[in-house]
Amino acid sequence: MGELLGVGALIGWWLMSLNFPSYIVPSPLKVAENIGLLFFDPEFMDDTAISALRVATSVFVSVLLGSILALGVHWSPALYGIVHDRIKPFLNSFPSVGWAILAVIWFGNSSFSVIFVQVAILTPFCLINVSEGLRELDMELLEMGRSFTRRYPRRFWKIIIPLLLPYIISAMRIAYGVGWKIALISELFGADSGIGFIMLRAQILADAAMVFACCFAIVIIFMAGEKLIINPLSRLGERK
């Protein structure tokens, strides 16, 4: 059923392209050609790889920062008000466009600007997930761990981290999905490379086919990353 729906949508798109100029509704074949350029043409491959690397770096840093903040509250409850009543609401509510503009003002057009924007937006998602995992820790299991060893670092790596792993992987999955949604915004404002920059150039040239291709390329990369990296990690977390 899903395949028939996809074929129907493709046919409908092709029929629309026959009745509209290419700068409004490009043909599926033209879009497919541009997708091929993004993945196989040296002129565009670097930009595609740069965007993927930026998102991967942002997800890693965001999960790390979110975990550190959540663990900080776990270890020192006095930090709860600072983290959950001040930092989390601020990061959750600050507009993504605002981060993008400020990043350009502070750091100029660079990969650091793009990563900064993505980390600022993704960190609260990771903080919420890991904090929920810490609240759900099995206290009886932790108490049993204390009966075997008084060394907290050993209990942390052998008990707490395996218990948190599903929540950390869930935070990674959410950050990975949202990261690609905001990648174009951050690159449109603060980069002279990447898929977002290609899309900006396509907008100036009224190249709708390349705009469609950039969007579909992101979908392809996202699905590949989820299937090849996120899902295997998720299964690993379930086994733990």
Description:
It is a single chain. The protein is an all-alpha fold and about 240 residues long. It has one domain: Orthogonal Bundle (MetI-like fold), CATH 1.10.3720. α7 crosses α8. The model has no long low-confidence stretch (mean pLDDT about 85).
What would a concise description of this structure say?
This protein is an all-alpha fold and 240 residues long. The protein contains 10 helices and no strands.
Order of helices and strands: HHHHHHHHHH
SS element count, helices: 10
CATH C-level label: Mainly Alpha
Corresponding CATH superfamily: MetI-like
Helix content: over 70%
- Counting DSSP E segments of at least 2 residues, the number of strands comes to 0
As a whole number of angstroms, the C-alpha radius of gyration is 22 Å
Low-confidence stretches: none
Shape: elongated
Please give the structural blueprint.
Layout: H1 2-19, H2 28-40, H3 42-75, H4 80-93, H5 96-107, H6 111-135, H7 139-148, H8 152-190, H9 195-204, H10 208-239
Helix pairs in contact: 2-3, 2-10, 3-6, 3-8, 3-9, 4-6, 5-6, 5-8, 6-8, 7-8, 8-9, 8-10, 9-10
